[in-house]
Design goal:
By secondary structure, the chain is α/β, with parallel strands linked by helices. It is built from nine helices and eight strands. Strands 1-2-3-4-5-6-7-8 form an eight-stranded parallel β-barrel, surrounded by six helices. α2 links the parallel β2 and β3.
Length: 206
């Protein structure tokens, strides 16, 4: 696959926003791939939000990826799921969701990245790139590790963790196909303007 844009949007209530309202802002500003991330939501509420956002994404010609939950991705009609290292195994998720679904896998080192590609992931998340970010990490993978992963795998890489608008160009130049950004977006005084600025950043030519 090819990432539909260099900005991988995250509908995450970390900034105090309602997930559906945030997704609508992201889509209105031009986001073309949105991950719904509701770590602490009850399953019933997660499914309701995913179903509503899936409908909005279809209307906007955007992709919806559900974080962690294969069941909710299937039931909501999402385009795919993003799996962490302790979530349902990739092979099981593929069996449930089928060949056409998009499946991403979070990775934090070269071995994980290679395993995800060998297992049939459509893309990998790689990070955390920098200290800070939503999880307030103390250390980041950095650009050299991103370059090493880029040299080792052929599937798209979505960099995540502490990335800001200012850092996005160097992340793309180091080999990421897209950057997932939460904090710099949800804390922006004008979320739609921030998203438009991120979408305007040039992605290096193939």
């Amino acid at each position: 696959m090819r990432m539909p844009s260099q900005f991988y949007a995250m509908a995450d209530p970390a900034g105090g926003h309602d997930a559906l309202e945030l997704a609508e802002l992201l889509l209105a500003a031009g986001a073309r791939i949105v991950q719904l991330r509701l770590k602490d939501a009850p399953a019933r509420d997660f499914l309701a939000a995913a179903t509503a956002i899936a409908s909005r994404c279809r209307a906007s010609g955007a992709l919806l990826i559900v974080n962690d939950r294969v069941d909710i991705a299937v039931l909501s009609g999402a385009d795919g799921v993003h799996l962490g290292q302790t979530d349902l195994p990739l092979a099981a998720a593929r069996e449930i969701m089928g060949a056409r679904a998009l499946i991403g896998v979070s990775t934090s080192n070269l071995a994980m990245a290679r395993a995800a590609e060998a297992g049939g992931a459509d893309y990998i998340g790689f990070g955390p790139m920098y200290p800070g970010g939503l999880k307030n990490t103390t250390a980041g993978q950095g650009l050299d590790n991103l370059r090493a992963v880029r040299a080792a795998v052929n599937i798209p890489i979505v960099a995540i963790g502490g990335i800001t608008e200012a850092r996005m160009p160097e992340v793309l130049a180091a080999g990421a196909d897209a950057a997932a950004i939460i904090t710099d977006v949800v804390n922006a005084p004008d979320i739609k303007a921030k998203v438009r600025a991120l979408l305007a950043i040039s992605r290096p030519p193939d």
